[in-house]
Design brief:
It is built from 16 helices and five strands. The protein is mainly alpha-helical. It folds into three domains: 118 residues, no CATH class; 106 residues, Cytochrome Bc1 Complex, Chain D, domain 2; 111 residues, Cytochrome Bc1 Complex, Chain D, domain 2. The strands form two sheets. A three-stranded antiparallel sheet has the order 1-2-3, with no helix packed on it. A two-stranded antiparallel sheet has the order 4-5. Strand 4 and strand 5 form a beta hairpin.
């Protein structure tokens, strides 16, 4: 649920031994060693020290932690769950792995300033259940806002790096060059999210009326594979409450069909090199009809939220780098076009896809420059 291994494992490193670089607007931090090594990990940490780090953001030796480690969310975790987590870490094989020194800009490199940050932005109080909501909704709220720390990626931050509140909660943000889309009614998805769609997405990595889990979200879905169904459903129930009331299934099917049919009619108005490029490179897998599914699921692109987004980043990254490590085996693979197509070609292809599959949205501006920016960004 906490997705700990994803952040606390360096590329090619031992699981949970830390050392992964975390780039922030304030500089670069490195994740710490969670294994019970006495010198470089948690081996000498008592449960009380671990609990204080998780709730207050203060390390064993008394120095303040930076909120790239989401103690602002972990503070909501119960003592029982923290004890279970501590016991799990202490049962791991010990790995000696020094944590590289952080590289933060002045004055953010001054850790004592975090005491003031915590006073302004950190609420260590336990998460209070909402009496008017169901037990399942409250369980979902506990998981999403606690160990799940969904807001760490899906909530925009202010100038000092704190998650914004109010209507900005879970309204979407950029993380590691990927857009973490809004999980609320602000979503640009062609079809509103409901509890069943959210459950399917979190459980299987895809939903029949939405796209697949890509980028960092694919790692999240893989970790959630070990989480019981009841907890996944509780998270979906809670997140669905931030979206419009679900419509009857027949109405939803008819609306999805209308969106797909509109995209199909748009095709005839866009004849040209970009369409030929799409037909030759993409259409064998991404077709709107009932033809054979060649590689994994074939959710119509007109229902894919990346095509309707205000930002082209997720679509461009997927075209450039493909789907190499899908969240679940059912999703299938997609080849990368980084070396096959130049910036102009990818811009034409992405522009065509936007015009065809999201004709209700305006064209993305300066698309060739956007392709060059995304291509040059680290992380592929």
């Amino acid at each position: 649920l906490g997705d700990c291994a994803v952040c606390h494992t360096a590329p090619g490193g031992a699981p949970n031994a830390g050392g992964r670089a975390m780039d922030t607007p304030f500089g670069t931090l490195y994740t710490t060693n969670l294994t019970p090594d006495a010198e470089t990990g948690l081996g000498r940490w008592s449960f009380s020290a671990f609990q204080r780090a998780m709730r207050e953001g203060v390390s064993r030796d008394g120095h303040h932690l930076y909120p790239a480690f989401p103690y602002t969310a972990f503070a909501k975790t119960s003592d029982d769950d923290l004890q279970a987590l501590y016991a799990y870490f202490m049962a791991m094989p010990a790995v000696r792995a020094e944590t590289p020194k952080s590289e933060l800009k002045f004055p953010f490199s001054l850790r004592p300033l975090m005491a003031g940050w915590n006073a302004l932005f950190h609420d260590p109080a336990p998460l209070a259940p909402v009496a008017t909501q169901s037990a399942e909704w409250n369980r979902g709220a506990y998981l999403v806002n606690g160990l799940g720390h969904c807001g760490a990626c899906h909530t925009p931050r202010n100038a000092l790096g704190a998650e914004q509140g109010g209507s900005a909660f879970l309204s979407g943000a950029m993380v590691d060059g990927w857009e973490a889309p809004s999980l609320t009614a602000r979503s640009k998805s062609a079809m509103p999210w409901d509890a069943d769609s959210l459950y399917r997405y979190l459980r299987d990595g895809h939903s029949p009326r939405h796209g697949i889990a890509g980028g960092p979200m694919a790692e999240v879905v893989r970790e959630l594979g070990a989480v019981p169904d009841a907890d996944i459903r509780a998270m979906a129930t809670y997140l669905a409450s931030f979206n419009p009331e679900p419509v009857p299934e027949a109405t939803a099917q008819a609306e999805a069909r209308r969106i797909v049919d509109t995209a199909a009619r748009t095709q005839g108005q866009l004849l040209g090199p970009a369409q030929r490029m799409f037909d030759s490179a993409c259409a064998a897998c991404h077709h709107d009809g009932d033809g054979p599914t060649l590689l994994g699921v074939n959710t119509p692109l007109a229902l894919n939220g990346n095509l309707a987004s205000a930002k082209p980043d997720n679509l461009l990254r997927t075209i450039l780098d493909g789907v190499r490590d899908p969240a679940t085996r059912d999703i299938g693979f997609m080849p990368a076009f980084r070396d096959a197509l130049d910036d102009r070609q990818i811009a034409e292809l992405a522009g065509y896809m936007r015009a065809r599959f999201a004709p209700q949205e305006p064209a993305w501006p300066d698309l060739q420059a956007e392709v060059a920016r995304v291509r040059a960004a680290p992380g592929h």
